[in-house]
Amino acid sequence: MDTTADRTVVAPRHSGELSAAELRRVPERMDEARRLRPRDPGSAALDRLAELAARLLRTDASQISLLTDVQTIVAGSGLAPGAVGTDNPLADSLCTVTAAGAGPLVVPDARCDGRVRELPPVTSGQVGSYLGIPLTGHGGQVVGALCVFGPDPRQWSDDDVATLRQLAQSTVTELELSALVRQYESDRVRWGLAIDAAGIGTFDWDLTTGRLSWDDRLIAMFGYDAETFEQSIEAFNARLHPDDLPRISEHLRHCIDNCGELDAEYRVLRPDGDMRWVHARGRGLAGPDGTAVRVLGAAYDTTGDRENSARVTRVLEAMPAGFYSVDRQWRFTHVNAEAERLLGRSRDDLLGKVLWDDWPAAINSIFEENFRTAFRTGLPISFDAYYPAPLDGWFEVRAWPTPDGLSVYFTDVTERRRVQEQAQRSTERLALLARVSAELAGTLDVEAATARLPRIVVPALADFCVLTVIGPDGHPRDVGTWHVDPASRALLERYAEVRLDAMPITAPVARALHTGEPATFSGEDVLNVLPQGPARELLALLAPSTEVALPLRARGRTIGLLTLLYSAGHVPTDGDVTVAQDVADRAGLALDNARLYSTQQQLAEGLQRSLLTEPPEPDHAEIAVRYLPAAEAARVGGDWYDAFLQPGGSTMLVIGDVVGHDTAAAAAMGQLRGLLRGIATYSDAGPVEVLRGLDASMATLAAKTLATAAVARFEQTPDERDRGVTRMRWANAGHLPPLVINPDGSIAELATWRGDLLLGVDPEALRRESVVTLDRGSTVLLYTDGLIERRDADLDDGLVRLRKALIDLADRPLDEMLDEVLERLVHGRPEDDVALVAVRLHRQDRPRPAEAGPSRVPPTVPPEPAG
Q: Torsion angle, CA of 579/585/589/595, rounded to 10 degrees?
């Protein structure tokens, strides 16, 4: 585990009981935890955060717990069915130990950790390793813990702790947001009940159809019920006091003729003999031709006006929302107590004042636009809006037009907006980090992927960005840029091309590269140290106000720099810089991993190739070899080829494949190749004897290796030389058989591909030898299965493809033929290692062809093969 992570573990505790007792002694902490506890367990947002924690940290399970007098699991991933929503004793929980500490609880091996080893989740085997972060509410009290764990021991890194810490902040934000939403919904219910208590009914008279629609409250006000109400103006007239009917009819006619206002008070005679005073206000709404098509309004019972007015006032005063009303000249006519508090002004100071004069920031804003829309349409409207100083807050506003003016209900939602924006920022930052991780992990070309990072960083964290990488020669170079303004991207690219060469060692960027420490500085600081020239001119045109240089660090050294640049008016936040440093750290580690992988890959491949030596060049025999490592493997393995001359002058070709695709297989290949060479060059034995000798040597040396191999020896007597033929003697230990291309271009199959028993199984196994006579001009190819094997096809299909390719390429020079075979069958990127060795037997009655190169034979070997 990293030493930084070790320093963040909580102080040791003697038992879970002590931690639980300490937690219970803080009533403010318990109240805060109860406030944040979700109404229903299994919140989708919390479950997503828990699942994200388990996925990012690659653990079996994760859990979010709140701690009151018990531990309550409010979300989780990978837990037993039904675990979410359960309560458990504080003394039995690792989350209690987490919450009681001063920082993250880092437990690599729970069974050996005195703080937690006796807790039930550990003794039951459920928890073998554990990482937990305390959840701290906005009041500063620890309310619970976010943790990830698994059954096996594990070393936790600094990145693991940092990632879980960020997720813990998002978890607290989500808990705070849920608590605010619950409070907000409660206030809305109280608000609705208060409006219901006012007893206001609404009506809508469609003049085209004659339909008069009343809500339930207005129907009851007139003594009707919903089943018997006829929804017509006659039903209204039938209840109207006869003395008021002419006057009210005239008011309605004037409202309709002029599309004007209705403001009238009248008496209603109900069937039970009760008489009620009703005050109605409405408006005539015009159609496309300018004539009225609807009358829309509201009415309320004004019986006992003084008493009723007092009751309405009491309702408005008791409302948890601010309320004020303005007349049609926008003068304040009523302000309740909550409105006084929210506006910071007394009602005596506001009543009679004009809204636009007292609150000038509302002019030409969303407030004025919506208020005037409500007046114009006669319809209620709701919206969220920000009002600057002196209020400096967000408000949810509902405006209801009345015949007298406008009634406005509003609540302060600044805190809710802040929590929502914080949650959104946290989500965006996590998404950005996930995108960076995916970009770096999704390609083998890490340097190219890293160069694209500025496009991810801009505009999320900066206005423009430059990525610098220190090359193998130790010199820094800018490899990636991006600007939020497309018109400035070419300018930024030109600046990146010249800035490092022009920048003195005293420049802030150069100091950050040299010290490996983050640096924040102004654009003027860089301009002041740049000499006159293109770099200074380009930077002046880009005009950054602030720059932040963040080192790309990995394994104790600086390998690059991420420079964030901000235009005038933009200032980096601490959150932006923290996330950008995380991006830089990930990029640095990915680049260093790629460097180490490339170095290891080149070393391993170079070692393997050093074992695969160049072939000899015997008289009139041209030998060519190829080795191609797997495209997505360790680039070393057990495939090998060999070609050498025996003491008697015979040419021997070998192809082999050790089981495995790693450095161990490569090492075993080197041993077997050396043994086979020694046996063949010392004994001058034929192929079958060489394989038997190799199998026996493997058994004697206790080599724990399995391998396949095919050995072919080319022999010729003087008579055969005169006749222009050569004998090939060959033996096969479980390998694919050689293929022969005859001088006429036809392909000869020497045997089925199932050979004798592979090497390393039974040294006493029976081995057979075959002999075939070849015309001069023939070509023999030995190969490993990587040439013809594919995930989506079997070896027989691969052999068909190989034979077809060889028929097409039979007349090509030998080297060209092998290159084209590799391109056609594996496209230069094989799924498995490929080794090839081929010999072309040129005619001996003619000079050795130029493409075969000079003849080179060791001095201890006769120039012509023995019979």
A: 120
